[in-house]
Each structure stands twice: as C-alpha cells, then as structure tokens.
TrEMBL record:
Organism field: Vigna mungo
Bilayer topology annotation: Peripheral membrane protein
Major localisation: membrane
Cellular location(s): Cell membrane
Designated name of the protein: Uncharacterized protein
Record-level GO cellular component terms: plasma membrane
Amino acid sequence: MWKEKKKHKLAEQLASTLVKYDLSWQVSNNEYNRTLLITMPRDPLNVTKRRRVSVQKREERRKNTEERLERTALFIAAKTGIVEIVRKFLEVYPASIYHVTKNKQNILTMAVKYRQKKILKIIERTGTMESLVGQITDKGRTVLHEVARMDYYKAEHLAGVAFHLQDELR
C-alpha cells in the first residue's frame, strides 16, 4: 500500500511540473480564419475518377487530422478522464478552460464527446459553463449534438441486454 501511495505522489509531482511548463493550450483558435484556394482541374476529361480520388484523399486527411488536432495535454486529460491533470491545469492556468482547437472544440465538447462525467463536474464548478456551451465546432455541431452522438459511447459492463438499453437511455 505504501509503495502504491508513493507512486501516486510521484505521479502527482510529475504532473504538476509538466503542467507548469506546458503552454500548448495558449495556441488557441478562437478566430475563424480560412483561406479559400481555387485551382483548375488537372484532368478535366476523367471527372468521376478525379472525384473518387478527391473523396479518398479527403477521408484520409480527415482521419489523420481529427486526432492530431486534439493533442494538447489538457484535451488528452479531458478526453481520457484524468481529473487530477485537468484540475492542475485549471489551478495553474485558469484561462486554459477557454482553449479552442483548430476544429473549434473546447474542453466541454471533449468531456461530453468522450462521456467524462467527472470532467464535466469540474467545468461546472468553475462557473464557465454558459460561455462554453455556445461554442459551435467547424462541422456545425454544438454540445447537444455531441451528447446525441453514439460514436464515442462506451457501455458499462452490465449483466444483460435490458440493462445495456437502460444505460443507453439514461
């Protein structure tokens, strides 16, 4: 028991030190700046092939960038439910709660998207819920849309199908 407690204390000290020197949350994307680039098609004769290739490239880019854009320490902690690190961030840098990623997601959107109730309670205690709820992502989604999505839902380990359905309804 003593060894486990010692490991926990060391992990907390390490997290405190890392939070103190992590400034990744300061690069926030609150303004909407987008450059539109129009180019001529390379092969105007084969339209269907060009469309198919562009759709494939767009899907690959989406998959690659979706996870990469959320990789600040604060959002990783919020996404995985590491309450201690989120608390430390908000103690050391209270303004970090307003950090927004390139795809216009904030900490509340992350907590709701990945179903992290403990992180949501921390956000409620800060009193900034009203200002975070109004954020709309680049895909036009609000926090309510993220609540309704079942992509990131992890069901609890319940005994029967009826209990799973009851949990989803809750």
